[in-house]
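We modelled the chain as a single entity of 604 amino acids. Its sequence is:
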Amino acid sequence: MTSTQLYLRLLSYVKPYWRIFAASLLAMVVAAATEPMLPALLKPMLDGAFVKKDDSLIRLIPILILLIFLVRGIATFISTYTISWVGNKVVMDLREEMFRKLLALPTRYYDDHASGNLISKLTFDVTQVTAAATNVVTVCIRDSIIVLGLLGWLFYLNWKLTLLGMVVAPLIVLIVKVISGRLRISSRAAQQAMGDITQVIEEGVAAHKVVKLFGGQQYESKRFGEQVNWLRRHTMKQAAAAAANVPIVQMVAAVALSGIIYMATEQSRADETTVGGFLSFVAAMLMLISPLKRLTGVSEHLQRGLAASESVFALLDTAGEVDTGQIEIARAAGKLSFEQVSLSYQPDEQAEANNIWALHDINLEIAAGQTVALVGASGSGKSTLANLVPRFYIPSSGRITLDGQDLSKITLASLRANISLVSQEIVLFNDTVAANIIYGQSREVTEAEIIAAATAAHAMEFISEMAQGLNTLVGERGVRMSGGQRQRIAIARAILKNAPILILDEATSALDSESERHVQAALETLMQGRTTLVIAHRLSTIEKADRIVVLHRGRIVETGTHQTLLAKKGTYAQLYSAQLHFSDLAPSTGQGLRAASDADSDEG
């Protein structure tokens, strides 16, 4: 996208506020029109008041000067306030659109992009757009009018001298163009560095316990220092280019001004101009320097804004989740079928050539209301398989059906309305306990329903002990609660949603032994009549599953009940035996570790 296309697209966000913007432009025109009036008053003031001693001019000129400054002051206030209003509205609209886009992006996009860089786009990059969208327009319009007005007056006074001054214009344009290119490059680099800084900060804050415990303060400080230094270097490159821009242009203008003053002096000797005309000409020439300085300096803000626009529009132009579905389903029965499903995180050709598949040739039938446990070593594809059901990922080949309907033909909203998830990565929002339990509900939920869901998840026993009960704030990511408490609130959320398909990804992993018994009982009640996918590392928790599916390197290697698979003495039996052997170790090792883990979970 060219700079012109970028800028026109940016200005399209100003269009909804064109009335306010037009009022600002009108006020700019009025303020700019008063600028050439001041040197224009010099000629009659000097020639009429000082030379000819005209009494009427002596009385009139001070009043005109006051009126000019009054009009200019009012117009400047209106233009400055309204253009700031429009600029802030543009930033707000862009941020809202960017955030909506972030919520609509596919899971794979988040896998490929650091969260700190994404946050930086919304917090830093978008603010750089304001100057390009509004302030640049202000300078260009206001100062262009001032320059044109002053040039008009200069041509009226002495066209020969004015033409001499305009000889340097092409040289000034060339200087601005060269420096603008450097500014754009350094602005892009600075925005990337800012994203990297945000990423380091986010990781340092989120992992502060690990940093402290493992003595990583010096390492993190070094990382942060390196990123901050990169930002400083790129910012200094911008500063150097911007700082060189104005004095170079001013020097070129000063050379022209010196020549003009010399020629004007020669003309004055030949009585070709009056004292008032000469001083008025010089004053107008000097007054040209400030608007010219701003017009040449505007390149810095423009290039920074255009570089930010590239970053912002790159995000906005990223394709969101593909929703090819046209079928709206109500409450599903829950029958799932995987037909020759394969998935690779690389292009299919590379996956085929290198035999790198996250899942390969999966064929699996899950009856409605059946509980199926997915087991296997880490990296075997358990979570990936479960993530295909809500279409967080799209299969590279094959298809998945729900009640006979291809998932790709079902709308995402209606599909996901039929699925609940309780993950080992507990997600709570910085809100009340009640708000976290009813999160995402489109209907009015009564307090009785919230209490019933929390009771079923064995959460009311600790919620009722809190001073504010359901109105207790859980803190960022639920930091004010223990791991077990956070997990039970997440389970209460799933219970309240009452979806026919349930995905449990190590749903009891963060619970102590006592809480696990209560929650396991609640989950068994919840799973009745629902199609349930259970992802489990502790095989003792899935012995009652209707069917166990064993995965190895993205392929199904065994299926059957707990007893059937043990009797086969295959992969499942080996996994089960290994875990049983570990749990049978001396209390000082296995059981002691588990007890310590449970105690830590209770402490939060």
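As a brief sanity check on the tokenised model: The chain is about 65% helix and 10% strand. The two ends are 50 Å apart (CA to CA).
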